[in-house]
Design a protein that fits this description.
heterodimer, A: about 325 residues, mainly alpha, ABC transporter involved in vitamin B12 uptake, BtuC, two-stranded antiparallel sheet, B: about 400 residues, 13 helices, 11 strands, globular
Chain lengths: ~325, ~400
């Protein structure tokens, strides 16, 4: 897709997203809010795994950290909810960076296991700090209301907030990944030694990528706390982390739009599976997953990219084929 | 156009209101032939052992429908999997309410999952009936008039132990071992409230707690023995319960040992602890144990077994959860029958809070369901049982926690 066509497509999608609340019920809007929230988390994980090549099975932990940051700030300290998003992002940035340093010694599957431990530990740690986290009872919040007398109900307001946060974070991510930093991040994935030889501080970049990735996921966690209006340790089990990994692979590794597509997948496909079969929804989900991977081995975004490239190539070949004939016609 | 169509709908409703019996227009989920009920349950994930409760309930409603339904209306039981994950519960319950338009939700399972929808149900003013959890907070009609519990709460159970001790142990010196979280503290509070009512709060000589991260509770049990306690209230989950029973036996401590119902399983607790060590343990029950030979010729048990064979042949007839779901579904059917033709949400709630001395076939003899406008705890009676080295045996009278 050319630059302009892409811009038009993005703007059309945005316009569609902006008027969506006029057409769908509050329940659907709530589901789309969750899709946007997941998309932010997936983009975070995709930076780490898709672009930088570090596998994390523990991003549910950062999601939990973000969610609890928001919940504790609102419930225990009565702070305005708008502050919780930057706070969650900042806290997770630091936590992710610090976790990224020891993780430097681990590669591939070993890193996956280390992060998996993080995902396993989180629900229990949350129960341990009961005075803060409310233990297994969790913390109940109230949904934020629309400010300035806007004629929006809480579901609509949260949808717009989430959409706006997603937009800002996606633009930031695009700028980060399209420039020097992005090239360095990808170079480390492709060949760390070569990247280092070219003067890239791989240790710093890897830890920083971990930090930024965790920050994105943390912001998403804070948004989820606001949308669900409740946090509890049972939310942040190991399965959540694995779901995130499924989301980025299905959506498309190393792809920004893939994060949104992955968000749709992890939000809606389990529900469809349940509609198809109540007895074995996860078997149906598995079939969906295998089919998706078989038909689209590069994820949804990867496949779209491939199709577009193929069409362009065909158009170019066609142009190339007709051009000389036009020349001969002129000569004749 | 849009406004006109709204007007039309409004007129149609007004017209119908004149023809159809009063109130029909504002009863979501209710038609002349159907009652739509919502439900969530973990059919997948770590807590999927509870999944059978939803299945047995669906099977029971199927039987009711085959028998003609309730006042001519068939029950449409819509049950979704939430995997015991609170956000999924929120999503599924919103789907039930906003999209499927159920009349109310019934027996949604789990404490964190129900906590996540507690406020929503009450803001929407939709009955949140007979929730499947033992926490005490569900019976709070003043603040949450649309939510009602079902089974005896942890606090109710603890009060029964307190009443028993006060009555039967003249110089009680009580040692307590509890899990340091909201489950353990719920029991502890009920027990202390029960003692305080009898002015016996001082009977507690030592409280010991543990975390679920602790490898054993051996040292706590030794401390309790050394405190000179002659009553031991054991508030632990299965793994630690087995340890505590075994340790007490090994160090020769023979107190009156009260074991919370959470760990009353013969297979997973008493067997590993050893039947010899488990002898004379006391706990409570309120449902008939389907594995207990005592009920072999009991009419209620035989009826349940016949139901299981016909409507839920895949179900395990030794699984107490299948008794639980069956009984809860019967409680609901009772409420719906009592509603008559007025199935508005207000009336469903009103009738749920108006159950008087209801006996159900799989409740233990003497245990009755009772609710009132200020009593949102349907089952508050329990029966003490003692382990005879092989199985739990009922003894003494039925205790009523609301009276202690």
């Amino acid at each position: 897709m050319s630059g302009r066509a892409r811009l038009v497509a993005v703007l059309a999608l945005l316009a569609g997203a902006a008027v969506l609340p006029l057409f769908v019920s509050n329940f659907r809007l709530f589901q789309f809010t969750q899709v946007a929230t997941y998309a932010i988390a997936l983009l975070g994980l995709n930076m780490l795994t898709g672009y930088n090549g570090q596998i994390s099975l523990g991003h549910g932990a950062f999601y939990a950290l973000g969610a609890y940051t928001a919940a504790i700030m609102i419930d225990r300290w009565s702070l305005p909810y708008a502050l919780t998003l930057p706070a969650a992002g900042l806290l997770c940035l630091v936590a992710g960076f610090l976790f990224g340093i020891p993780a430097l010694r681990l590669e591939g599957l070993y890193l996956a296991l280390a992060t998996f431990a993080l995902a396993l530990a989180v629900p229990q740690i949350l129960k341990y700090f009961e005075d803060w986290t409310g233990g297994s009872q969790g913390i109940v919040l109230s949904k934020p209301k629309a400010p300035w007398g806007l004629p929006l109900n809480p579901d609509q307001w949260l949808y717009f907030v989430t959409l706006a946060v997603m937009l800002v974070l996606f633009v930031l991510a695009r700028n980060l990944l399209a420039g020097r930093t992005g090239r360095a991040i990808v170079a480390i994935r492709d060949n760390a030694t070569a990247a280092q030889a070219m003067g890239i501080n791989t240790a710093l970049y890897k830890s920083l990528t971990f930090g930024v990735s965790a920050a994105y996921t943390g912001v998403a966690g804070a948004l989820s706390a606001l949308t669900i209006a409740f946090v509890a340790p049972d939310t942040f089990n190991v399965f959540l982390s694995i779901t995130f990994l499924v989301g980025i692979v299905v959506g498309g590794l190393a792809s920004i739009s893939g994060a949104i597509l992955g968000g749709f997948f992890i939000q809606f496909v389990p529900n469809w599976a349940q509609d198809i079969s109540k007895a074995a929804p996860w078997a149906i989900y598995g079939v969906f997953l295998i089919l998706t991977m078989y038909v689209m081995p590069f994820g949804i975004a990867g496949t779209v990219r491939l199709l577009v490239a193929r069409r362009r190539r065909r158009a170019e070949t066609a142009r190339a084929a007709t051009a000389p004939r036009a020349g001969t016609a002129k000569a004749g | 156009m849009r406004q006109r169509s709204w007007m039309f709908v409004l007129l149609a409703i007004l017209a119908l209101a004149g023809i159809v019996p009063a109130g029909a227009a504002d009863m979501p989920g209710i038609t002349a032939s159907e009652i739509k009920i919502g439900h969530t349950n973990p059919y997948s994930g770590n807590a999927s052992a509870y999944g059978t409760i939803g299945k047995v309930e669906a099977a029971y409603f199927k039987m009711i429908n085959e028998q003609g339904g309730i006042n001519g209306r068939k029950i449409n039981f819509v049950s979704y999997d939430d995997g015991y994950s609170p956000p999924k519960t929120v999503e599924m319950v919103r789907k039930l309410v906003e999209q499927d338009q159920v009349a109310f939700v019934f027996n949604t399972l789990g404490t964190p999952t129900n906590t996540a929808i507690h406020k929503y149900m009450n803001q929407q003013k939709i009955p949140h009936l007979f929730v499947a959890t033992g926490a005490t907070k569900w019976g709070d009609p003043e603040h949450f008039p649309w939510t009602m519990g079902w089974q005896p709460t942890y606090q109710a159970e603890a009060k029964i132990y307190a009443a028993y001790v006060m009555k039967n142990v003249p110089n009680a010196k009580i040692g307590i071992l509890y899990q340091n979280d909201d489950y353990g503290k719920d029991y502890l509070k009920g027990f202390k409230d029960g003692l305080a009512k009898a002015n016996a709060a001082k009977a507690i000589v030592l409280e010991q707690s543990y975390e679920t991260t602790d490898p054993t509770v051996d040292s706590q049990v030794v401390n309790l023995k050394n405190s000179g306690a002659n009553v031991f209230f054991n508030i632990t989950i299965p793994k630690y319960a087995a340890q505590a029973i075994k340790k007490a036996h090994d160090i020769g401590w023979k107190p009156l040992h009260l074991l919370n119902n959470v760990s009353a399983s013969v297979g997973t607790v008493l067997k590993p602890a050893g039947f010899e060590a488990s002898k004379d343990l006391i706990t409570t029950q309120y449902l008939k144990d389907p594995t207990d030979p005592e009920w072999k010729n009991d009419a209620g048990y035989k009826e349940w077994l016949a139901f299981m064979k016909k409507y839920y042949p895949d179900g395990n007839v030794e699984d107490a959860f299948n008794v639980y779901g069956y009984t809860a579904a019967q409680g609901l059917v009772h409420v719906l029958k009592q509603c008559g033709n007025d199935l508005s949400r207000e009336n469903v709630m009103k009738q749920a809070a108006n159950i008087k001395d209801l006996s159900l076939p799989m409740l233990l003899p003497g245990i009755k369901v009772n609710t009132g406008p200020k009593d949102f705890y349907p089952i508050e009676q329990e029966q003490l049982v003692k382990f005879d080295g092989e199985r739990w045996v009922r003894f003494g009278e039925t205790y009523d926690a609301s009276k202690h």
